Amino acid sequence: MKQIPVKDLKPDSYCSDDLYLDEEYILLPPEVPVSSELINRLVRWGFLTVWSNGSLSDNPPGGILPVEEGEGGTGQEAPSLVVDAAEQKTLQAVREFFSDLVTFCEKTYSAFLNNQRLNPGTVADKAKEVITAVRLHQPFIFRIQEMDDPRRNYLIVHSAKTAILAAGLGLRLQIPQFKLVDLVTAALLHEIGMIRLPPQLYLSNRVLTPEEKRAITAHPVIAYKTLRSFGFPIPVCLAVLEHHEHMDGSGYPRGLKGDQISVAARIMGICSTYAALTAERPYRPPAEGHTSLLDMMKRAGKWYDEMLLRSLIFMLSLYPIGSYVMLQSGAKGLVVESNPENPRCPVVKILFDDRGHRLKDPILVRTDEGINTIRRALTQKEVEELLG
Ligand SMILES: [Fe+2]
C-alpha cells in the first residue's frame, strides 16, 4: 500500500480502493466519498497520512454504485445503500478487532494462570490499539451487547468489553494519552485475579458461603500484588485494586470513599458494571441496556461517581447504542448513535415500520421528545422474535 498525505484528501473525493488508517483499520470503502468531517477528525487526532492501494479521484469508481432507475427508483435510494455498505464494513472490522482483542485477553489471562510473567509493555501496546480502534470506530464499537461469545470465558470477554467502554469514556473526558493507556491497560486486566477461582463462583447467582465470598473479594488484591511484582505502573495496579470500591465507602477491598478512589478505578467500576449487566450469564438472560442504565442511576453518587455515570449515559445515550427500541409511531429500530444534546433522544435506524413490515432500506431518524419520541426499549424476547 502507498501513503497518501491527509492534506491531499478533499471533501467529496473518492479513493479507487479501500482507504486505510494503517495496515489494519479501514477508514472508507471505495464507494463512500471522503467527508470533511473525516478529514477534520484525522487532523484533530494528529494523523498525517492514510494508506491505500488505490488513488484519489473526484469521481466515484465506475460500476460500484447501484443506482436504481425506472419505476420506484428515484436515485435518492442510493445514499442509504451506500451508508449501509459502509456500516457493514465497519461492523465487520469491529467484530474482527473485538475477536482479536478477546484472543489477546485469553492468552494474557492463561499466562497469568500458568504463573508466567506478564510484560507491561505488551499490554500497554494492546491498550493503545484499543484506543485507536475506539477513536475510529465509535459509535459502532459501543454495540457491546452484540459481542457476547458463549464459547469463550465470560471474564475474558467481559474484560475486553470493559476496555472498549473505558477507552470511549476516557476519550470523551479528554484524559491525557498516557493516563488513558494506563486506564485501558487496567481495564484489560481488571478481572485477572478472578481467573484462578473456580468458574462456578462467578458464573452462578447462588448464595456464596463466607469462605467463597472471601475468595471473590480477594480478586482485586491478588491482581494488584501480582501486577506490581511484574512491574506494571502504579496507576494501573491501583485502578485494578479499587475497581469494586463505591463512592459511599460500601465497596471492597478497602472501603475507600469518594476522591480516595482513583478516577481510573471509578471509570472502570462503571464500565465493568454496565458490561456485566448487559451480558448473558448462565443463570439469566442479558439485561436490556436502558434498564441497566436506569438501575445504575439509582445508585449514582452512592456507588458510582455521578459525573462519570452521566458521561457514560451521554456517550451511549439513555437507550444505549446497540439497543432495539419502539418509537411512539409503533416503528421499531436499532439505536445507532447518541445525541450529544439529549441522551434521551439518540439516532435510531428504523428497521420495521409501524405495521411490522421490514424496510428494504432502513431509515435513520433523529428521535425527539415529540412525534419521533422513543416509547420504550424492546425486551430480549421481542428482539429475538423481531429478528427471527
Ligand atoms: Fe472484579
Automatic annotation (TrEMBL):
It comes from the Bacteria. Transmembrane segments: none annotated. InterPro entries: HD/PDEase_dom (IPR003607), HD_GYP_dom (IPR037522). Residues 133-328 form the HD-GYP domain. PANTHER family: CYCLIC DI-GMP PHOSPHODIESTERASE PA4108, CYCLIC DI-GMP PHOSPHODIESTERASE PA4108-RELATED. This is Metal dependent phosphohydrolase. It comes from Winmispira thermophila (strain ATCC 700085 / DSM 6578 / Z-1203) (Spirochaeta thermophila). The lineage of its organism: Bacteria, Pseudomonadati, Spirochaetota, Spirochaetia, Winmispirales.
